[in-house]
From TrEMBL:
Molecular function via GO: lyase activity
Name of this chain's protein: Mandelate racemase/muconate lactonizing enzyme family protein
PROSITE patterns, alphabetized: MR_MLE_2
SMART domains: MR_MLE
Residue ranges occupied by any Mandelate racemase/muconate lactonizing enzyme C-terminal domain in the UniProt entry: 148-241
Keyword S-adenosyl-L-methionine annotated: no
Record InterPro entries: DgoD-like, Enolase-like_C_sf, Enolase-like_N, Enolase_C-like, Mandel_Rmase/mucon_lact_enz_CS, Mandelate_racemase_C, Mandelate_racemase_N_dom
Lineage, broadest ranks: Bacteria, Pseudomonadati, Pseudomonadota, Betaproteobacteria, Burkholderiales
Swiss-Prot/TrEMBL keywords: Lyase
Organism per entry: Parapusillimonas granuli
GO BP terms, alphabetized: amino acid catabolic process
One Pfam family it belongs to: MR_MLE_N
Amino acid sequence: MKHDIIRSVTCIPMRLPFHHWTDPPLFAGRPRTTLDSALVRLETQDGVVAWGESYCVEPRALLAIFETLIAPLAKDKPASDPMLLPSMQRTLHNLGRSGPVVHALAGLDIALWDWRAKRAGVPLHELLGGKRRDRVRAYASLLQYYDDAELLDAVSTRALQEGYAEIKLHERSAEALSAVRRAAGPRTPIMVDTNCAWLPDEAPGAIEAMREHDPFWIEEPLWPPEDGRALARLQASCGVPLAVGENASSAHALKEMIDEESVRYVQPSVIKLGLSAARDIARHCQGTAVVCAPQVAFFGPGYLASLHLIAAQEREVSLERLYVRLAHTPYQQTVPIQDGWAQVPDAPGLGADPEPELVAGRFGSFSS
Ligand SMILES: [Mg+2]
């Protein structure tokens, strides 16, 4: 059984130049001109190459983590061993239960799923229980426009004209939501992600102001995001579905919220927590009032993994798609979004590999 022995695990930081029809938004205190994550490449002795994706804000850190921690533990081990990743998680737990080491393991986890499905010759969704739908609706997730009603109107109108039927905003005010509600009409679901805008005593008033514009859900309403009790109190009183999860550092925290039904949507990020954890969270939601709606602010193998996860889960939810122009759009030829829908791939594994130029570190540019 030598063929399944891991020959190499490497990471390839991916910085995708984008524009969103105005000046770059701020991210982590800096203007943001690229959308960043990292490809994870796994190869076994038999030549099978599989792909994962890790959250990555600092490429030098992630490269070092793969080189010094991940690769030495994974190399020469059998990729088919179901205990490989759990044992690595335990071996590395002293280095932190969230952050870049965990994100690196998440990328390896996705690559191992791709590898298993490729080796079995089946699409990933089959290993997740089988697809319950052939296509998944995508929603246009706008970046931040800082309450600029004119821009919000223009960009959401553009998304609707391209066939998207649902929109998410990264805004914090009722005025911003009102502008998009006017542009999109009364029946378009509009989600609002505040990225942890409010302290617990500020949130009720801010949400009340938004209610007349009918938000579909309000995402990450509270600072700090891990205050589960405050979230549960807010959900019980605010009258709008709440969604959280992208800041969760473990599946455990989200499972507790599901058990207590303290929010309506949980949003695991597969490039932070891994696909195994996200699948467990989706299963944990079954029979509860909580719906798993993965956070998908990325475009690589983690995006495809999320598409398979959504296709296989019981409750139908839409797939987050950041609404930007990319200089190079991963999988544009293989798994395109058309009229606001993504077909669920049926080729073995994730269904498509990243394009050779991405693997070579060429991400395109907008320079003319
Ligand atoms: Mg979000």
